[in-house]
Specification:
The protein is an alpha/beta fold and 193 residues long. The chain contains seven helices and seven strands. The chain has helices at residues 3-22, 62-74, 85-94, 111-124, 142-147, 160-170, 173-176, and strands at residues 55-58, 80-82, 99-102, 132-136, 152-155, 182-184, 190-192.
Length: 193
């Protein structure tokens, strides 16, 4: 799986690490790593996440991934970035996430199909549903969101205040962590307090 090594690079190199990892050639081969080869006895899947919130961001456009990653890093979070919906489904079935931001328009498997696959896995394994938020320029009504298993939507490009509101809504631990919220200006701009 490409997302896990990319997460290691991103965690080590921040925004530039994420950029370098997305400039590498992509592979669509999905396998669990052999026991002991990737997750050693001292590090498991949670090793890649800093802070207390685990966010998966899925978008086939590297520029969009870099932008949302930079916004999250400014908020003290290090999301796991993937550019393929099938890989996102594999990761969502393998790891625990607090939130998934899902692009809707991707080749091969779109965000709605990926969300349906995640919901099917959760139901068949009796797991709690992770919030999946549409991260797209495509607008969906509340009824369409609900019918497709989505919990909400974020516009693309995403203003800092909208991302902050989304994270606070779906990751309540952020409010308890004492982070400074992003506030909207009268002109719609955002600033950290």
């Amino acid at each position: 799986m490409r997302g896990l090594p990319a997460a290691r690079k991103a965690a080590a190199g921040g925004f530039l690490g994420a950029l370098k990892s997305w400039l590498q050639p992509r592979t669509l081969e999905f396998r669990r790593p052999p026991a002991g080869s990737f997750f050693g006895p001292t590090q498991g899947p949670d090793h890649f996440f800093t802070g207390s919130v685990r966010v998966l961001v899925v978008d086939d456009e590297p520029v969009n991934l870099m932008m949302i990653s930079a916004q999250m890093e400014a908020l003290g979070l290090s999301p796991l970035l993937v550019a393929d919906a099938a890989e996102a489904v594999a990761l969502a079935c393998e790891l625990h996430f607090d939130l998934i931001l899902m692009d809707l328009n991707m080749p091969d498997l779109d965000g709605l199909q990926a969300t349906a696959a995640i919901r099917q896995f959760e139901a068949s394994h009796r797991q709690a549903a992770v919030p999946v938020v549409a991260y797209s320029s495509r607008a969906l009504s509340a009824g369409e969101l609900q019918a497709n298993g989505l919990n909400g939507s974020l516009p693309k490009p995403c203003p800092a205040w909208a991302l902050d509101d989304c994270l606070r809504q779906w990751c309540p631990v952020l409010g308890a962590a004492g982070r400074n919220p992003v506030h909207r200006g009268t002109d719609g701009s955002a600033a950290m307090r």
